[in-house]
Amino acid sequence: MNLKLYGPDAKNTGHLQSWNMLDGLLVVLTFIISQYFYFSYIGSYSANDLFFFYYFLAFAFFAAVLIANSAGGLHLLALVCLFAGWRESYLTNQSMFAFFYYGLFTLVLWYAKTGEGQGAEGREKNFTIPAQGRGLYALLAAVILLFLTFNGFMRGFFYDVYVHDRELLDFLPLRDLGICSNDICSAPFRKYHILLLPGAFMVLAGAVYAAVSARLIKRRGLILLALVLVAMLGKLSVISLSTDGFGTIARKIAAPIDCAYYHFAKQITDPFTFVRQYTELYQGPSSIQYSHLKGHPPLATLFYWIIIRFTGPNPFIVGLVFMLLTSLTVLPIFFLVKRLFNNEQAGFNGAFLYALTPFSAILSSSGIDSVILFLIILFLSVYSRASASGKMYYFFLAGFIFGVNTLVTFGTWPVLAVLPLFYLYWNRQLGKTGIIQFSVALVTVAAGIVLAHIVFQSFFAFGFDYIRAFKAARTVVRDISGRPYILWVWGNFVHWGIFLSAPLFAAFLYRLTLSMTGRKPFDPYTAGSVAVLAIFFLSCMGRAEQHRQWMFLFAFVLPQVLSVFYENTKEGVSFNRLKYAVFAVLVFINTIIIEVKITDAQ
């Protein structure tokens, strides 16, 4: 099987663009405006002035990068649309109109990408900057240092400046402070001998990886089984480091706040009544449960109810079953990455790396967000197959899976905005016929989403008002959006990156750096991934626990990271196994550090 480099290495055929006067004026003007707001903030300490300082400074930076990269007017127009959406999200709390701008951003970016490869006038050119082999390691060291000292930043800055705000302690509840959060209490880590267990797991995982890489395990079924086993054992080895060891499985599942879905699933005697009364009892102003159920559709709770029906309400058994089910996430990751790279070993590398992350080993032990991650990756895997093959029933199936996910959470709808860019990855040049086929594909995806809702509604006699529940869920974020904006965006971004893992996040930034320096092209899948992250983080307006809430964004980061380990050589494409192995070890060490430093409520 020939390896298809995800975001194939580009030859440095571009050049630094000679800027014209208008280009320079655009960058200089926005930079001057940013400085105006900076000095205004010094005098007024206005939150709005601080925001617009960062806002215009960021625009000046990205505009300069695009201009230097000969990106052209359409890319600058896309940037303007993105920043218009960001401004709307900031000025109008929980603005839905902002997504009109985000939609325009992805539409213009998609239109710009369709011109690539159709002549010099439509091709995105890359400028060349001499690549330094040490760049990855320097960036890695800097990001790891930032993330590992982030607890200190939080305690030294946010805790002092916003000391009145208890929710900041929930944002990063450190074990050495003995903080109780979400019904879970912890103590400082002292049982160092237990580190032997994750150490033994790492040795076992390394042996599995070596066996698959050396083709000692060849059958796909055995490879997939090995991946599930690694994911499950990784969870158990890391949870052994928690305050109560394996007992934490039951504690996290049974905690009324930390896992409210299970708590209320135990109380369901009639699921039909539960769904019909869901908005009134669990989402209304006087609801008996404030945050979790109020902010999600009913399928999140019904998921636990289904497990209980088969296993009984014992929280330890339910926790083990939940951990096993979420270990299956490695399967759609395997097929998604395999299809992106057209290489089965690449699929294994991607799924194996995920099994070592905090997302898999820590955050998939109880919370419904890990189910959302599974469904979004499954959706992307099927959608990628549909885009590559052009078969409409795969588009329909992808839409149905996405529809099921929207019944678990309201938070993934914006992903639909970037589907054109993902489609374009497999269909680079769209003529008139291609546009028609793509339009039919989108309608087919929409039909699948509609059918998922019809099946759910018909099962419950159309007793659930999805739109009303969606509006009620928005009030949850509105009620906690009084946090400083710097925490909403910067703090959440870094916090999410901690649980993604510092090494992977550094590699992701390095991958984007390679695009900006002409080493790897900014292909449509990369553009779509960046667009997804930009839309979700710029429109977040609130919740601090973004490491869990946005676990599903891992699906868009992983392929970017994996492409860093593939390089063009005179003999062809090669995979840097040593670099990958170092990263894998660092990722798992990052996971262990988080478990021993941060309260188990995470």
Summary, kept brief:
The protein is mainly α and 602 residues long. The chain contains 29 helices and four strands.
Rg, alpha carbons: 24 Å
Largest beta sheet: strand ordering: 1-2
> How many strands in all?
4
Share in β-strands: under 5%
Describe this structure in words.
- By secondary structure, the chain is an all-alpha fold.
- 66% of the residues lie in helices and 2% in strands.
- The protein contains 29 helices and 4 strands.
- The protein has helices at residues 21-44, 47-68, 73-91, 98-114, 135-148, 150-161, 167-171, 196-213, 220-239, 247-254, 260-265, 271-276, 278-283, 299-311, 315-327, 330-341, 344-355, 358-361, 369-389, 392-406, 419-426, 432-459, 466-479, 485-500, 502-516, 524-538, 546-549, 554-563, 577-597; strands spanning 180-181, 184-185, 566-569, 572-575.
- The strands form 2 sheets. A two-stranded antiparallel ribbon has the order 1-2. The chain has a two-stranded antiparallel ribbon with strand order 3-4.
- A hairpin with a 2-residue loop joins strand 1 and strand 2.
Give the SSE map.
Layout: H1 21-44, H2 47-68, H3 73-91, H4 98-114, H5 135-148, H6 150-161, H7 167-171, E1 180-181, E2 184-185, H8 196-213, H9 220-239, H10 247-254, H11 260-265, H12 271-276, H13 278-283, H14 299-311, H15 315-327, H16 330-341, H17 344-355, H18 358-361, H19 369-389, H20 392-406, H21 419-426, H22 432-459, H23 466-479, H24 485-500, H25 502-516, H26 524-538, H27 546-549, H28 554-563, E3 566-569, E4 572-575, H29 577-597
Antiparallel strand pairs: 1-2, 3-4
